[in-house]
Design goal:
The chain is of the alpha/beta class and 244 residues long. Helix content is 28%, strand content 18%. It has helices spanning 25-32, 69-78, 109-115, 154-165, 174-181, 213-231, 233-237, and strands spanning 6-12, 36-42, 55-56, 66-67, 96-106, 120-125, 141-144, 198-199, 202-203. Strands 2-1-6-5-7 form a five-stranded parallel beta sheet, sandwiched between helices. A two-stranded antiparallel ribbon has the order 3-4. The longest helix has 19 residues, at 213-231. Bound molecules: ligand 21W. Ligand 21W binds at residues 100-102, 126, 129-130, 144-146, 148-153, 156.
Amino acid sequence: MVISSMKIDILTIFPKMFKGPFTESLISRATKKEILKINITDVRSFSKDKYKKVDNKPFGGGGGMVIKPEPLYDAIKSTGVKKKNDFYKNSYAKPYVIYMSPQGKTLNDKIVKNLSKFQHLVLVCGHYEGIDERIMSYVDEEISIGDYVLTGGEIPAMVLVDSVARMLPGVVKEEDSVKNDSFYNGLLDYPHYTRPAVFKGYEVPCVLLSGDHKKIYEWRKKESYKRTKERRPDLLKDRVEIEE
Ligand code: 21W
């Protein structure tokens, strides 16, 4: 089997923030198996400034600082990004530049699945008040991870990498990926139990101890729907119902 691989470049002024998350668990498995290659670039190393400055005061005044365009531009170019309308025979071969930004589309399962098709993602992490707007000419998409204020785009970039990595073939164990494709795709998960069968007087639902796989499947499906209906009815709205 030919395993496709993905490269993700991360451009940041805080490269050390990425040390832990990518050397543990799933992502480290993906990088060890060479399904994923993560490359962290310190935008500061592209500063031609005497003191390696990467930010400046905003034109028009106001508080906060803005990331200067030149070092960020050079960092983007260093990843192999070409001019905006350059022709690629395979559109997924084009380095796809994403700016992690509170103004972006909120990340969801559909966006993650689509991003996982690209061979090369370039994630730009902002900080302070953001980046110089003219960098948007080199950005293909802006993505947020939700409506809450963070201090920068680094943690959102980690969230994006984590969610995309587990979509790459060969990263998550076969068992789990089959699960992802089954009936409750788009639904909340059913409850899980492990030994002991009785814990502090709380019992495991007896159907799970029955050994009747058909019954167990039906029970889990029912529980998934029940939970989704109760907690996230919004998820049921645009689903094509197979059965209730
Ligand atoms: C947060 C920068 C707020 C600037 C109106 C005018 C990337 C993020 C970020 C940050 C402001 C993401 C203001 C969810 C996030 C990120 C840093 C705006 C005040 N308001 N997803 N001026 N949440 N955040 N500053 O914060 O870079 S993706």
